[in-house]
Amino acid sequence: MPIVEDAAGGVTGEPHRADPDLSDSVDKSATHVASPEPLLDLSVTYPAPGVCVVRVGGELDMLTAPQLTKCLVEELSASPPHLVLDMQAVPYIGSAGLYALFRARELAQARGSVLHLAGMEQRAVSRELTVAGLLPYFRTYPTLDHALSALTS
Amino acid sequence: MESDPAGLADRDNPDALSSAPVEATSCPPTPILHLLAADSRSLAVLRAELRRCLETLGWTDTDEIHEAILAVDEAATNAIEHAYPPGGAGTVQVVATAHPDQTLTITVTDRGRWRPVPTHSDGRGRGIGMMRTSMHTVTIIGADRGTRVELRTRRPSCP
């Protein structure tokens, strides 16, 4: 049976074919060859004692999110007191990216580090965190400067 | 490729909107976006293609464009991640159809095995919730020969 859901999450009984013909109107000639990998741009700095900053540049999706997780695992292995993730240059974040952020929080906790999310004035990120209900789990700042001011004052 | 300004001008003509699908490079009136390789490297291309398509159709609100892209990206991500065995080749078909009320139905279809929505606690499965908050209607049709996700956008606000 098809699952039919409206925007409010309710299930409606809209009828559908039990065995949908999934082969209609397929343009086989449109087969797409994936372009070169859009790699995430990650830069790590230590602007103050005990503060590690990871600047993320690029779209965070299923392809790139594991790159971020790998980088964070490496940086957190040194148990920095504070790890600041600057999301200012992330124009898109999907569920895989959100999961990477949530995982980063868990990894930081396990290493005794505090994770901070900066660059929240980038709406693409703050909006998805809000919609997903994840924002309360993070210490957030509008910009990296705000985060560093808070951590070094 | 150039967009089709004439097609854009015919946007309010229901006959134009219901005409046959055309090549991916000329979106209006009814675009076929792509038959993607079921590979995470396809996603960025899909998002860029969809953005161009929506802009060609006259969508101007950045939040509305973002929501539509998000929903399609999540559907395609699910297909790439779950439809085919690890390492196996497969395709994901994305087709957008414009309606006279200026909404779009975007279908994301794979030929893999239908699998129930994952609900385990590792953070997966959130994508369907993101689709639901971004779109007017989300319909998931599972069959032996694949899964089709039909996403109906909200009506775009007029500039």
Descriptive report:
The complex is a heterodimer of chains A (153) and B (159). Chain A is globular and about 30 Å long. The model of chain A is unreliable at 1-35 (pLDDT under 50). Chain A has 4 helices and 7 strands; from the N terminus they run E-E-E-E-H-E-H-E-H-E-H. Chain A has 153 residues and is an alpha/beta fold. The longest helix of chain A has 16 residues, at 95-110. Chain A has a 5-stranded mixed β-sheet, sandwiched between helices. The two termini of chain B are 25 Å apart. Chain B is α+β, with helices and mostly antiparallel strands. The model of chain B is unreliable at 1-28 (pLDDT under 50). The longest helix of chain B is centred in the middle third of the chain and has 21 residues, at 62-82. Chain B contains 5 helices and 5 strands, in the order ααβααββαββ. The interface between A and B is large, with 43 and 52 residues.
> C-alpha Rg of chain B, in Å?
16 Å
The helical percent of chain A reads 25-40%
Strand order of the largest sheet of chain B: 1-2-3-5-4
Q: What fraction strand of chain B?
A: 15-25%
What is the first-to-last residue Cα distance of chain B? 25 Å
The average pLDDT value of chain A, as a whole number, equals 82
Please outline what is shown here.
The complex is a heterodimer of chains A (153) and B (159). By secondary structure, chain A is of the alpha/beta class.
Detail the topology: elements first, then pairings.
The complex is a heterodimer of chains A (about 150) and B (about 160).
Chain A: E1 3-6, E2 31-32, E3 41-48, E4 51-57, H1 65-76, E5 82-89, H2 95-110, E6 114-118, H3 123-131, E7 139-140, H4 144-152
Parallel strand pairs in A: 4-5, 5-6, 6-7
Antiparallel strand pairs in A: 3-4
Chain B: H1 5-9, H2 14-17, E1 32-37, H3 42-56, H4 62-82, E2 91-98, E3 104-110, H5 126-134, E4 137-143, E5 146-152
Antiparallel strand pairs in B: 1-2, 2-3, 3-5, 4-5
